[in-house]
Amino acid sequence: MNESSDTPQSDTGDQSRRFLFEHADIRGETVQLDEAYREILAIHQYPGGVRRLLGEFLAAAVLLSSNLKFEGKLILQVRSEGQLPLLMVECDDTLQVRGIARGAEQATSDNFDLLLHNGQLAVTIDPIRGQRYQGIVPLLQGSLARSLDYYFEHSEQLKTRIWLAADGGRASGLLLQQLPAQLTQDDAQRREQWDHVCALATTVKGAELLTVPCENLVHRLYHEDPVRLFEPTGVRFQCSCSRVRTRNALSTLGAPEILELLDEQGSITMECEFCNQGYRFERSDLADVLEGDSGKTLH
Ligand SMILES: [Zn+2]
């Protein structure tokens, strides 16, 4: 057996990778998605422009979730008056992602502003324990990356910049974030270091972001700056839906409507939009919901 060391496992597939500048209070994060991205695209038929946009959103969600310091998830959701009315992606603290574009059938454009005309982006941090936080930013910047830059400029104290690319087969991203002053206390020097690493990142072309493995990309950009590169963390597509959650959602319809559906169809099948999983409920599965609610409906 001849095992090649030329293609280490860490350079392939869906992964996120953190790096730290040794002489500056700046951290970086890269993400590359392929299988997870393609699995999500395979669930629905999306036009080309929407496929690419969904990829950028997925990559962004992974990059932003690297800020999560607790169990929970980060959600990016856009509502727009453009060709794509709704887009939503999630990434949790274990880097499980899922995403959906709704109403995308009419989307013929490849243009960000036409797809998401008058769009509002909600960035939600949803911890399992603790309070949900949501920030909203208008999508006026012509791209998701620039909109997120704008969001960070106006909401975070730590400077943050993001670069994204997606082509329908792969999705990638790069994030740089200034850390609290530790190594460098002088403000002017901190600013200079930040401008330097951002200027280099700005030279990255979308195609490079998509094709160059994280390790090589970081090396290519910052070969003159000592950088500590951490081991990659795997990213995967995994839907968080379940029979219990679906049943809870169904029960909010109320007994009369559930009864009507059961009379019409015999049973009720609910499909998860994110993964297409179907959950079928018979009358007997919903007995307590029907009884619990019937008391209320009689009053
Ligand atoms: Zn699901």
Helix-strand pattern:
EEHHEEEHEEHEEHHHEEEHHEEH
What small ligands are held by the chains? zinc ion
Q: What composes the largest sheet?
A: 6 strands, antiparallel
Measured distance between first and last alpha carbons:
76 Å
How much is the average pLDDT?
A: 91
Number of helices: 10
Structure description:
Helices cover 35% and strands 27% of the residues. It is α+β, with helices and mostly antiparallel strands and 299 residues long. It folds into two domains: 12-237, Hsp33 domain (3-Layer(bab) Sandwich), CATH 3.55.30.10; 243-294, CBS domain Like (Alpha-Beta Complex), CATH 3.90.1280. Strands 1, 2, 8, 9, 10 and 11 form a six-stranded antiparallel β-sheet that branches. Helix 9 (255-265) packs across helix 10 (287-298). The N and C termini lie far apart (76 Å). Mean pLDDT is 91; it is low at 1-11 and 293-299. Bound molecules: zinc ion. Zinc ion (ZN) is lined by residues 239, 241, 272, 274-275, 277.
